[in-house]
Amino acid sequence: MMPLPPDFYGQEVDVVARALLGVTLLVDGVGGPIVETEAYDAADPASHSFAGRTARNAAMFGAVGHAYVYRIYGLHHCLNIVCGTPGSAVLIRAIEPVHGLEVMHRRRGGRVTIRQLCAGPGRLCAALGVDQSLDGAFLGEHPFNLLLTATDVAIVSGARIGITRAAERHRRFGIAGSPWLSRPFPQGPDAVQHRSGK
């Protein structure tokens, strides 16, 4: 495995959302391969950046290759990767838990099954120790490490989860058949297949 190239984050957000699938995400050495993402940009009514820059979403308008971390429901954090044009970011929805399993279980309370450890943006942030202190952090240095693998993956897309605006857009991407997804993708003609560009 090797670090992502510097120009990786300059690509269009939907391209990055697909290309991140299979990339290993580590925070202080804890993590695993990304299996599910969602794409957002400033022209997207479902995006935090749609109404313009605010104190909360400032990282989305900053340099690419940085983290945008926000809190939902006053309880859970969500990790996004800033990329592409200003106001664009990829939400990391799920990873396969591989590295630092004991640490993940301890952070999640110890009673969680391995499949539930990182299946969902709030769950994975809790397991990886991601919180508001990492908002705006550069992804190319400690505590982050994103590593590219040589393996291509089959990718499926579908509607994003938990939104009401622009809900029909297929901007949620996942590794086809992965047991680590936060939610299965629908089968049939709406499940469009892609290949990763790595």
Radius of gyration, in angstroms, nearest whole number: 15 Å
Whole-number mean pLDDT: 92
What class, by secondary structure content?
Answer: alpha+beta
Overall, the morphology is globular
For the terminal residues, how far apart are their CA atoms?
12 Å
Q: What can you see in these coordinates?
A:
- The chain starts with a strand and ends with a strand.
- α2 (101-108) crosses α3.
- It has three helices and ten strands, in the order βαβββββααββββ.
- With 198 residues, the protein is an alpha+beta fold.
- It has helices at 13-19, 101-108, 121-128, and strands at 2-3, 24-27, 30-40, 67-72, 76-82, 89-95, 144-148, 154-158, 172-175, 192-195.
Provide a quick synopsis of the model.
This protein is α+β, with helices and mostly antiparallel strands and 198 residues long.
List strands and helices in order, with pairings.
Layout (H helix, E strand, L loop, with lengths): L1 E2 L9 H7 L4 E4 L2 E11 L26 E6 L3 E7 L6 E7 L5 H8 L12 H8 L15 E5 L5 E5 L13 E4 L16 E4 L3
Antiparallel strand pairs: 1-7, 2-3, 2-7, 3-6, 3-9, 4-5, 5-6, 8-9, 8-10
